[in-house]
Amino acid sequence: MTHIHIPDGILPVPLWALGFVLLFIALGLSLFRLRAMDMRKKIPLLGAVSAVMLVAMSLEILPIAYHINLSVVAGILLGPALGFVAAFIANLVLSLMGHGGITVIGLNTVLLGSEALLGHTLFYLLRGRMQIFWRAFLVTVVSLFLVTLLLIGMVAVSDLDPGYFTHEAEQGHAFKGHISIATFATLALSLGSIGWLIEAAITGSVLKFIAQVKPELLSHVLHSRNKAGGLS
User: Fold this and answer.
1) 3-state SS string over 160-213?
2) Of 20, 52, 111, 139, whose CA is between 20 and 30 Å from 93?
3) H or E stretch at 95
4) Dihedral angle, C-alpha 148, 69, 27, 119, nearest 10 °
5) CB burial of residue 159 (10 Å; 0-12, 13-18, 19+)
6) In the chain, where are the structural domains located?
7) What percent of the chain has pLDDT over 90?
8) Is the pLDDT confidence value at 220 over 60?
9) Of the ranges 12-16, 75-79, 158-162, 193-197, which one carries the lowest mean pLDDT score?
10) CATH number of 13-218
């Protein structure tokens, strides 16, 4: 999962401060976009999606220590702007529960917000080209892969021992030994790829179900209906 769980006081100040600057800029633009939306429909949906993300991110898939985040689902259902807001709400609540420090809220929201943006954009660009399940599956894998590269870049520029970002360190266990950035990247991509496939299958199933029972929620990213009346 592209989410930094480490406590406060570890990341360099310039890095997490930059995360907050990017957060405030993106959040400001996202909230500005609310003025052009039907808030009577969007706000309840934002609350529901944020709650589902919060529950999903609180669970862990063993033994790969992967957390489902459903950020791509949020981006597709809500759009990039509200998808970013949902990512912020989920990260804020999790940090208040001790699931990562307060100082990493900015970076974590940028990471998950990027997944929402990529997921929505790719899903829209592929409209009409394949069935909803496989379209969602593909864009989820691609989005998570690209944002994992962004996470690896953050770890590299932090100039910290990548061991601080391992699962053991996130759980509060003392870290012993040095891990190179290459080793960290290999672990993140290899173990993460298993999680991406699981999350992609969940995302595809969720969106396929929504398309069948509540297709209007996906009307902004769907291409057309097929002749039998079902959604493509």
Assistant:
1) CCHHHHCHHHHCCCCCCCCCCHHHHHHHHHHHHHHHHHHHHHHHHHHHHHHHHH
2) 139
3) helix 71-96
4) 70
5) exposed
6) 13-218
7) 55
8) yes
9) 158-162
10) 1.10.1760.20
